[in-house]
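Write out the bound-state structure for 6-O-phosphono-alpha-D-glucopyranose.
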Amino acid sequence: MCGIVGYVGDRDACPIIIKGLKRLEYRGYDSAGVAIVNDKGELNVFKCKGKVSGLEEFISEKDTRGCVGIAHTRWATHGEPSDRNAHPHYSASGNLALIHNGIIENFRVLKDALIQNGYTFKSSTDSEVLVNLIEYVKQSNDCSLEEAVRLALKQVVGAYAIAVVERGNNSRIVAARQSSPMVIGIGKGEYFLSSDAASIIDYTNDFAYLNDGEIAVIEKGKDLEIKTLDNEDGHLDIRRLELSISQLEKGGYPHFMLKEIHEQPNTIVDCIRGRINPETLEVYLSGVALNKEKFLNAGRIIFVACGTSWHASLIGEHIFENMCRIPVEVEYASEFRYRNPIIRKDDIVIAVSQSGETADTLAALEIAKKAGAFVYGICNAVGSSIARVTDSGTYIHVGPEIGVASTKAFTGQVTVMAMMALCIAQMKGTMTEEQRHAVVRDMLRLPEITKEVLSTDSVIADLAKIFTYAHNFIYLGRGYNYPTALEGALKLKEISYIHAEGYPAAEMKHGPIALIDTEMPTVVIATPDHTHDKTVSNMEEIKARGGKIIAVMAHGDEHASKSADYVIEVPVCSECLMPIVVSIPLQLLAYYIAVYKGRNVDQPRNLAKSVTVE
Ligand code: G6P
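---
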């Protein structure tokens, strides 16, 4: 939520931070703005409601020269999207400008105290309170900007990643973080600042990851200075990140989402690379192997996640219970963290998160860690907060996911879960070698299988045309594919704004069947499994009530096709891997319906990709 970016060096800051901002737009796109300190030390803020392209147009005629700059793309929390609520915010005197990602929870108390001291506010944001608090502290203590930031932040309750620049200082940015991501890119005599390393990968591969409660003074030509809120030396955590710029471009596709859907055969290859031995058919994941005892003695696995990652976790529940015979619970991180959960020392808590930054998932993990559980991460973003706080983990390695609707991360998460379960099953002996090898063989075929599914792109595009104007959709599935139905419905909701619900097929009779009429399309996942016949009966029940059925089914399944109005045929592999196969046509269906409806597929309204606030 909200993207922040900054630059200090000898180059003109504006083009650099605008480029970075465009890469961060997946984090929010309600408004955008920049603050620049020029050679004369003048501090200028330019900002407006809407996307970064609007800001670019707005500043095209302005003098934005200057070698120190900060920029922000907003996902509104306090105050509606508008010019005045856009960041950066000036302090009352106009001497400071600040950008902020997060929520200042005690902003009302702080604001009232500042009003008592004569401050007035132009916006309804918590962020403007923070910049004025810093100014007030600076003036009252007659101290440096970094000292003022430190003292002000000691009064703040909440989450923040902030960057502040000062009139008269054209070589320095002060930045700080608490529960919101922030990295500093280290160049030659120059520094970059961002919510996400990928946005500044054009300039450097070396990143310092700021930790919670740390303040950085980022000054041209000087070493990075990192202090804690208690004025002790901070920890300089520098890592190298290899990422190719082409991964951040659309590569000829009209949308990132379509590119990412079509990348899946390759991202599955990247996900399993070096982890499956094609000769011996054995799976090796260091995160599991090095913590063998923990997994062998686990009393329970608890998944904590949000959104699509939560759906992948529901599939993980089936996979781990079936293959490893370990009891599994799946929790919405936002619920888990606030309901005094029972966590035992032999629990393994697995956080599943594409971004590795989701605030609720991170908080849930910290609760589990404090309670003594072994905490494991399944993340995509390398070096992200969740990846760094977990005891161990497995990256899904699907490359940057930029479309707000998650696609390749979902299939990567399920792939990792299946590999983890195979490793554990081997250690525990809960599957025979033959059973394990059958799954591994199918896993190795997944790139080919998913390619085959993607070749039906145009069939699904045609189907989408028929249903573009539906107002509601139901998605049904059972077993491994009940969560796939939830995920299919979520995809459609997110990007087309059509109301859609996922249900276990047999639950249909307990309520949703009342919704069925000739206007209501139902997507039924009817691929072969031990409940296949029952699913086909459910299709008949819908048909009998005039409902239109789109069946996702195995090639040539006449039994299912007889009960369907439209079919999407997919190849078949091990049951536990079928959610990977089935989710792809559902992603495409949602994609094409959204395109035909003229929606902004990559940046759907009100959503953000990385939810770093509660
Ligand atoms: C947001 C995104 C979803 C994502 C969810 C969890 O809501 O729009 O696509 O599934 O956050 O994100 P995570 O990064 O933790 O997987």
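---
The mean pLDDT is 94.
The domain at 3-243 is CATH 3.60.20.10 (Glutamine Phosphoribosylpyrophosphate, subunit 1, domain 1).
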